[in-house]
Structure formats: C-alpha cells, structure tokens
Amino acid sequence: MRCSPWDEARRNPRPERAPGGGARSVRAAERGIATAETAVALPALALVLAVSIAAVNAVATHLACVDAARAGARALARGESEAVVLQEASRAAPEEARVRASRTGTEARVEVSAPVRIMPGMPAPARAVATAATVMEPGAER
Q: Which residues on neighbouring strands pair with residue 8, listed in sequence order?
C-alpha cells in the first residue's frame, strides 16, 4: 500500500539527516530559504511596480495632450482668435505643455506636447505629443 509523504512524516517524527551524515537535519539546512527568496523577489517586484506607474503616467500625459489638442482645434475651427485657442488648449493640457496652433486653407490644426515625468523632480526622458486637425466651420474667420 502506498502512502503519502505526510503519512511518512507522522509515522517517523525524527527528521532525516543531511547528506554526508551531518548532525543537522534537512529542514534545518533549508531554514532561511524563504527569507532569501523574498529578498531577491522584493526588488524585482519594486522595479515592476515603478515601471508600471511610469507607464500609466506616460499614458495619462498623452491622453491629456490629446484632449487639449482636440479642444484647441475645435476652438480654432469655430473661428476663435489664436490667443483664445492657446488659452483653451493650455487649460486642458498638462503642466509645462507647449501648444502650437495653425490654420492652413480649410484646416485648423493644434499640436500639444508635454514632458513625461517618470518621477517628480527628475528630468523628463520623453515628450508626449498629440495633434488634432479639423475642417474650418463655414463662416469662420480665416
């Protein structure tokens, strides 16, 4: 009849000896392994968390730039002055964003770019850029 390792442990309460006939048991030799594994895993987990937070921050900055560019393009297509367009787009844009607006023929185009900060106080390694273009509305100033 086969028995499980747990049955064997109940029948034989004395621990096995470590290889080589030493006085330490196998379980005593494995003591602290979980602590060592945790010490290795925690920095890796912290790195994954930091990269995830940076990615979410980059996506949020890009979406804010897209929203600001769309708001500016709509205002420009309605025939608003460039100062009003820049003010509207800047209001929706992230901090330190650059806004450019242009009209070419029947098209209104607004570009918004902002630095993507990985951590506060660090220089931005990249910029999020969004452009929105729309057709000028009939009767709008050109």
A: none
